[in-house]
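Incident review: delayed structure delivery

Summary: a single-chain prediction request sat in the queue longer than the usual turnaround. Root cause was a stuck worker, restarted by the on-call engineer. No data loss occurred. The affected request and its eventual output are reproduced below so the record is complete for anyone auditing the incident later.

Affected input:
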Amino acid sequence: MTPMLVGSTNLPLPLIRRGKVRDVYAVDDQRLLMVASDRVSAFDVVMRELVPYKGAVLTSITAWWLRQFESEVAHHLIASDVEAIVAAVPAVQMHRDELAGRAMLCRRTEVFPVECVVRGYLSGSAWKEYQASGTLAGERLPTGLRESDRLDPPIFSPATKAETGHDENITVAAMRGAVGAEAAAELERLARHLYGRGRDIAAQRGIIIADTKFEFGRAPDGRILLIDETMTPDSSRFWPADRYAPGRGQPSFDKQPLRDWLDAERRAGRWDGNYPPPTLPDEVVAATSARYLEAYERLTGTPLDLTRLP
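Output delivered after worker restart:
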């Protein structure tokens, strides 16, 4: 079966933004429709090729996590089933196939302008900064840490939100200045709690969640809601626990096959790291798709139901 690939959507609704992966539309002044495409980016460059099932995996993992957390934190998801979405938003009924498995009808919020990052292991940009200066977001860490070392307790490391390019790590003090002391304290509490819960759930399935980022928004009634994607392979580092070894980078359940291939292209001088990206071989696209599907199955315990996707 050849899956339907969605690279860009054009729904009969006002487009709010088109990000690297998601297209976000206004339904009315209370609701949004978020559509996860099959676009994929690496090193801040969006590839021209699409990755089968990627949008459906990201949406399904987010919906799965929100069901795990809903007794503990309010969230913005109203519906992710396409039939419920079409019933609630009749204007998109002609786009049913395009939306199946990859759309979320959500409550609108006033989004806090920070990424709430929790790091349980030293990796990625945190490791690079630590190597250079022994700090994270300018704050001193213990000496002698190795790449991928476990951080106990986990570190709350907020970042600025960037539509393009890298988010930038900031201090908690800078976060307080951006959102206010009371909101900053509550966002940190929620992020730490959710990371701890998610880390424990994933550990039972042989997955280490090395770090993750959450986003929050304030609803009209004043409540803080968990919004956007939650603990997906795009917003987190998922490592297989049985292959974990500190002191080096770890294999991961995400677009690692894509990053590895692009790294080789850069080392060989065939790509300078900027747009346009090189043409991806079919086997790299297939391997990346398989990695996302594996992440869903390992996490939830069941394969993604491909029969419900066009």
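Verification: The two ends are 9 Å apart (CA to CA).
Action items: add queue-age alerting; document worker restart procedure.
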